[in-house]
Task: inverse folding
């Protein structure tokens, strides 16, 4: 390792290269703290040429590398398996160019998602994909995971907004993919790289499409007695052909946690579920859509449908929604956030089954999810120091994923496979399907040195990522230790 | 001649009736004397396996409506047709998605979608178009502005690889990051990585109102078209230069502006009111977009058809520049595309070279613009890449192609850089 | 495996509130500056957990980072899980102090300033007198031999000392104008009377003008916030104990504080002294918050100025007071309140952080000055002594024309 560290230090300076055990310690996990792996080193490039030299140094030393943004990912995608070198993009965070006329921006990968929308707001534009972590997560991370967010229902996910990429391959070669006008001749390599979880190379520049800020926005909150009827309302809205900007459900336990947090929005604590609906577009259309949606919600058993009176109230509703994940931290020391998608018409039966699974395992399971996309997020609060509870969390997670697959769904809608779900991939794909994916991987990264240990089912890599192997049952400290 | 042993093996895997020898047919200089039209996906996959192991290069075809797209084929001697596959078309009206076979005509999909209260994501002006073909060519028509690009419509695909494997990617749900997004890779890959056999598609909601307008405009037409394309509810917006416009509308002179709005009644009303204040002369023209689509796709419109993509401000400059150089021009500002049509006076390369020069003069690659020659006689494609792909992007694409099709049997020579 | 220091159970328990979501990252000035996970709230909590679990040592990165934190608590505002980061940080620093796990110049400065000078009014006054004399005679350098080595290099960063007249103490009691509405106590603070005597007098006058009898208990003293932040739990607790007695004995409706850092600390007094501390905390109000809650007389004097309000971290994040100071400023005829892009971020003063970590402090300040320079106000208003000094110095060095004042001084000016 020390030869490589010397080489890396020569590229980014001593201050830009961390390698001591306690220096790299905080990089052992990302937003999924149940999985961990210690990186060999962490480097902070400033530009593409730094990345090229870093990747070349890794190649010379036969070492793998992992691009990392803010580390808010929830599938272990930024884990450094095989003592890989973490290429931390946080200092590559500039907006390089904005073209307001053609509505695109060219940015570095470490730019924080929300900062991009802030930077282009003066042009009346915004960047549409809005993961709940948008205040912290980076565009590069969004590209790696093909991140979604509440507003993907209408606007699509990251892949629908990336026009071009600059990518450093594991050989150190720099390729520019796509084009600022959306189509480039040949294979859609941009489409292939978005969502590839950093396994095809290091993205060093992203050209994204910007959307005009909507003329008007209406935010509604439907109050339901239970989560199943809220799901039925979603099914009816989809069937009607309406395309709201967002359709989000929070169940009772989520409401309680959020209302106890700094993001309290005055949600009714006695509701079984709330359905947050956002419409945007020209004002005359909004008014009619609002009434149609209200009628559907009431017909499906909503006790009432509130309309946000002003931008402040709207922001409060959304802060409650986006802070919900963190707010679950109040229910227990650890949180497992699941992510699966089912056909929307199946939501009522699947959500009922998910709740039943949580109850059967005696777990604190709550649901806050992108109902309009059929994208479930069952959250399980637990305490990893209780080995029995950890077993139950993992077993319940397994059953939830199988339930979703049986309903015609998939095992991840926006968090990615990472280390977390690679052993569930066989629920969806055959050997031949993996074969096709591996052909893509080989074309970009024949030696599999870019973010190893992710996506593909494998037991070879990264055994330390497994929570059971990390011995959480042996964590030493309790209150009142000697 | 294809050797007898190969024919026997193909008949064994695809069935007697699916393997048809015939008089040589030409396509861009290739001579094809065999058509294999498997009746099931299993048979099709097995056929691919045989062709790969015997290094028998194939040209893949669906309905044959866009066979003009691509470089001259290299060494292909047989067609692989999806036409005999079952035309699956199951619409899920609750979800607004459909499971569709590659051979299903795009028009049938639209009819089935309408029956369930939805709309197809694809345009259906050409009755020959199949769903597989639309996806393989990532075909884009005037309504792509409102319907979205083909890549966004495809949720999941079943693809038979040259290895003989049947594979799936994506799924039927509308949001999915499970594994690599191979769907994007296959859409628009012109059948060079595998043969699409089935797709899950996202349907479009049925609009409450649809209204199209057409009329002649003056010099302000381009700017007006740009503005119209950015209004909410705009589904198709094009400006057609005067010489081509007569094929759509006999009346008047000058450029023809075609605008179609679709969506909620009040949105369409408002858009129409806006349009009328800006261009009073426009008349309702319900079939204008269909006719436009037919005109721009038809091989009889002109010998050469280029599709130019450029960011908005450059697009307008390209439009004017190509006009000056004698091309027929149709510009879709919302799609960042201009189509340029050139006629050829003689069957030699003089006119083709001149056309390319005109196109290159109008296209600035440094701003992300580029052009492809979508339609041309085979001889006019000689010695150049009709996709005009920048050399720097080719090595990676070549590697990718050889990973998926190491024997080089799928549409050899046709794609970018004569892959 | 590093050896696990003792007494970290509470620290460990607290670290478990963090679910590692990372929403705090972009709110953290040191993370924004360095991009390092260890310099983020999530990273520091993870380091604390690692130390408590015995997985890393307390020395090295962990202790460096515990002290490299500005303690602005912006992360608490961003944290949806309700992690009480400020308290966690104090415990982590206390552990470092107990284990003597820190070295370097920063430690020397803190030890000197926070144990030998600030808590002792007589010593503090003598120190400030000396400094003031030196500054007036432009003989700052004469004072240097009396300072520890690390401070010598940083003398440029010390604030200018006001005249003796400015620094005269408040009378023990200021009577309400007209019929009294109530009786409040005023926290004088340690640094405030030495450097911001005028602000203290303005605070008392505004309270009196609004009908409050103001008492200034003589037994009060330095609140101990800086010592608590620095991990000196013993000194902090004894200072708090003295103030509890002083203010609870005064029998007042509220203890009004015009220094955000002191206010935030007193509001958390229950954490240090359960019972008595809670009683004190309940009565503590920031001056702006107090006036807005109670209702204040609309000023009639005009101040024609574009004013940028800059949120002190320990008012916004530490006490959740955001609107009240803005309401005060808006009430002044002629004032145009303008928001600048970086109002909610730390200015880099952070107690004596500007002396202990000058480079980071200046980097954080630079962002703030960029935003202020873009907004180009006539006046910058902020309600904390450290911030007032830092912004005044920064604005002057950047060549901004704005003067920097406490909002209460503007209100008082408009009452005249």
Result:
């Amino acid at each position: 390792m020390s030869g490589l560290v010397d080489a890396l230090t020569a590229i980014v300076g001593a201050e830009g290269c961390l390698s001591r055990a306690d220096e790299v310690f905080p990089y052992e996990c990302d937003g999924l703290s149940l999985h961990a792996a210690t990186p060999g080193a962490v480097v902070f490039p400033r530009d593409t040429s730094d990345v090229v030299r870093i990747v070349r140094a890794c190649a010379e030393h036969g070492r793998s590398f992992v691009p990392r943004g803010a580390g808010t990912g929830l599938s272990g995608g930024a884990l450094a398996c095989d003592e890989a070198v973490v290429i931390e993009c946080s200092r590559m965070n500039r907006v390089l160019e904005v073209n307001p006329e053609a509505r695109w921006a060219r940015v570095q990968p470490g730019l924080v998602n929300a900062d991009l929308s802030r930077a282009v707001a003066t042009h009346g534009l915004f960047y549409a994909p809005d993961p709940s972590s948008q205040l912290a997560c980076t565009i590069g991370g969004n590209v790696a995971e093909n991140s979604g967010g509440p507003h993907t229902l209408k606007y699509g996910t990251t892949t629908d907004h990336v026009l071009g990429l600059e990518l450093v391959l594991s050989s150190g070669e720099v390729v520019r993919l796509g084009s600022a006008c959306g189509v480039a001749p040949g294979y859609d390599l941009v489409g292939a790289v978005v969502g590839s979880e950093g396994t095809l190379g290091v993205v060093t520049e992203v050209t994204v499409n910007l959307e005009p800020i909507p003329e008007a926005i209406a935010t509604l909150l439907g109050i339901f007695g239970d989560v199943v009827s809220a799901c039925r309302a979603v099914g009816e809205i989809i069937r009607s052909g309406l395309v709201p900007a967002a359709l989000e459900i929070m169940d009772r336990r989520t409401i309680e946690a959020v209302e106890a947090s700094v993001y309290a929005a005055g949600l009714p604590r006695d509701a079984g579920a709330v359905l947050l609906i956002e419409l945007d577009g020209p004002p005359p259309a909004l008014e009619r859509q609002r009434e149609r949606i209200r009628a559907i919600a009431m017909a499906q058993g909503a006790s009432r449908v509130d309309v946000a009176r002003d931008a402040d109230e709207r922001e409060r509703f959304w802060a409650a929604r986006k802070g919900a994940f963190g707010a679950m931290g109040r229910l227990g020391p650890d949180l497992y956030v699941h992510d699966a998608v089912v056909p929307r018409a199946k939501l009522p039966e699947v959500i009922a089954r998910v709740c039943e699974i949580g109850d059967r395992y005696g777990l604190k399971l709550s649901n806050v999810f992108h109902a309009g996309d059929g994208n479930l997020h069952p959250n399980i609060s637990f305490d990893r120091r209780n080995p029995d509870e950890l077993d139950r969390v993992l077993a319940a997670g397994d059953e939830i994923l199988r339930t979703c697959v049986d309903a015609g769904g998939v095992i991840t809608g926006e968090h990615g496979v990472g280390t977390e779900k690679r052993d569930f991939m066989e629920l969806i794909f055959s050997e031949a399907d993996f074969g096709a994916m591996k052909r893509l991987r080989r074309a970009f990264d024949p030696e599999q040195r870019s973010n190893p240990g992710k996506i593909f089912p494998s037991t070879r890599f990264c055994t330390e990522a497994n929570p059971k192997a990390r011995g959480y049952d042996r964590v030493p400290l309790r209150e009142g230790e000697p | 001649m294809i050797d007898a042993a190969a024919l026997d093996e193909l008949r064994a895997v695809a069935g007697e009736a699916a393997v048809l020898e015939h008089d040589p047919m030409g396509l861009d200089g290739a001579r094809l004397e065999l058509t294999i039209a498997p009746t099931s996906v299993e048979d099709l996959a097995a056929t691919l396996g045989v062709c790969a192991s015997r290094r028998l290069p194939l040209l893949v075809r669906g309905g044959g409506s866009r066979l003009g797209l691509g470089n001259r084929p290299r060494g292909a001697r047989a067609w692989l047709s999806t036409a005999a596959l079952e035309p699956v078309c199951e619409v899920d009206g609750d979800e607004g998605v459909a499971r569709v076979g590659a051979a299903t005509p795009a028009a049938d999909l639209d009819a089935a979608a309408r029956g369930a209260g939805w709309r197809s994501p694809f345009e259906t002006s050409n009755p020959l178009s199949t769903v597989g073909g639309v996806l393989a060519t990532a075909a884009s028509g005037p309504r792509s502005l409102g319907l979205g690009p083909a890549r966004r419509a495809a949720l999941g695909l079943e693809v038979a690889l040259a290895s003989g494997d049947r594979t799936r990617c994506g799924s039927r749900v509308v949001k999915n990051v499970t594994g690599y997004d191979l769907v994007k890779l296959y859409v628009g890959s012109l059948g060079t990585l595998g043969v699409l056999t089935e797709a899950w598609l996202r349907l479009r909601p049925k609009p409450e109102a649809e209204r199209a307008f057409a009329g002649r405009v003056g010099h302000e037409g381009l700017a007006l078209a740009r503005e119209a394309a950015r209004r909410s509810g705009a589904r198709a917006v094009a400006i057609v230069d005067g010489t081509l416009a007569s094929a759509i509308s006999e009346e008047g002179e000058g450029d023809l502006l075609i605008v179609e709005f679709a969506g909620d009644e009040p949105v369409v009303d408002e858009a129409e009111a806006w349009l009328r204040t800006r261009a009073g002369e426009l008349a309702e023209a319900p079939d204008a977009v269909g006719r436009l689509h037919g005109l721009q796709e038809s091989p009889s419109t002109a010998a050469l058809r280029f599709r130019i993509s450029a960011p908005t401000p450059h697009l307008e400059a390209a439009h004017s520049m190509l006009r000056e150089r004698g091309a027929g021009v149709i510009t879709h500002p919302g799609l960042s595309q201009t189509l340029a049509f050139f006629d050829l006076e003689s069957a030699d390369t003089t006119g083709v070279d001149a056309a390319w020069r005109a196109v290159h003069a109008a296209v600035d690659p440094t701003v992300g613009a580029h052009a492809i020659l979508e339609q041309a006689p085979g001889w006019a494609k000689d010695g150049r890449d009709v996709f005009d792909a920048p050399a720097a992007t080719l090595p990676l694409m070549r590697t990718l192609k050889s990973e998926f099709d190491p024997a080089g049997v799928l549409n050899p020579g046709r794609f970018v850089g004569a892959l | 495996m590093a050896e696990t220091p003792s007494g970290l159970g509470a620290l460990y328990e607290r670290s478990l509130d963090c679910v590692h979501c990372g929403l705090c990252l972009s709110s953290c000035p040191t993370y924004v500056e360095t991009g390092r996970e260890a310099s983020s709230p999530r990273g520091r909590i993870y380091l604390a957990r690692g130390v408590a679990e015995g997985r890393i040592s307390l020395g090295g990165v962990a202790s460096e980072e515990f002290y490299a934190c500005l303690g602005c608590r912006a992360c608490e505002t961003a944290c949806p899980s309700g992690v009480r980061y400020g308290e966690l940080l104090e415990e982590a620093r206390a552990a470092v102090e107990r284990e003597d796990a820190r070295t370097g110049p920063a430690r020397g400065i803190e030890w000197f300033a926070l144990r030998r000078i600030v808590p002792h009014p007589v010593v503090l006054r003598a120190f400030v007198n000396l400094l003031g004399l030196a500054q007036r005679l432009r003989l700052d350098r004469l004072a240097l031999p009396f300072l520890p080595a690390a401070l010598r290099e940083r003398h440029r960063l010390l604030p200018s000392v006001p005249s003796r007249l400015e620094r005269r103490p408040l009378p023990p009691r200021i009577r309400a104008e007209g019929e009294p509405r109530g009786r409040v106590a005023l926290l004088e603070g340690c640094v405030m009377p030495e450097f911001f005597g005028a602000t203290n007098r303005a605070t008392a006058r505004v309270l009196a003008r609004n009908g409050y009898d103001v008492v200034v208990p003589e037994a009060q003293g330095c609140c101990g916030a800086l010592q608590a932040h620095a991990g000196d739990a013993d000194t902090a607790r004894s200072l708090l104990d003295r103030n509890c007695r002083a203010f609870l004995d005064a029998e007042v409706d509220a203890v009004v504080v015009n220094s955000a850092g002191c206010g935030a600390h007193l509001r958390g007094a229950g954490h240090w002294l359960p019972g008595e501390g809670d009683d004190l905390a309940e009565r503590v109000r920031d001056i702006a918050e107090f006036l807005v809650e109670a209702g204040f007389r609309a000023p009639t004097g005009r101040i024609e100025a574009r004013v940028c309000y800059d949120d002190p971290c320990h008012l916004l994040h530490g006490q959740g007071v955001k609107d009240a100071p803005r309401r005060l400023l808006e009430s002044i005829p002629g004032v145009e309140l303008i928001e600048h892009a970086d109002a909610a971020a730390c200015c880099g003063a952070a107690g004596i952080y500007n002396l202990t970590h000058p480079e980071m402090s200046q980097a954080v300040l630079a962002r703030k000055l960029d935003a202020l320079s873009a907004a180009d106000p006539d006046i910058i208003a902020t309600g904390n002594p450290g911030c007032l000094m830092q912004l005044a110095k920064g604005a002057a060095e950047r060549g901004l024309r704005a003067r920097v004042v406490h909002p209460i001084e503007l209100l008082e000016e408009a009452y005249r």
About this structure: Chain A is about 30% helix and 20% strand. Residues 471-482 of chain A have pLDDT under 50 and may be disordered. Chain A touches chain C through 54 residues (CB under 8 Å). Residues 98 and 105 of chain A are 4 Å apart (CA to CA).
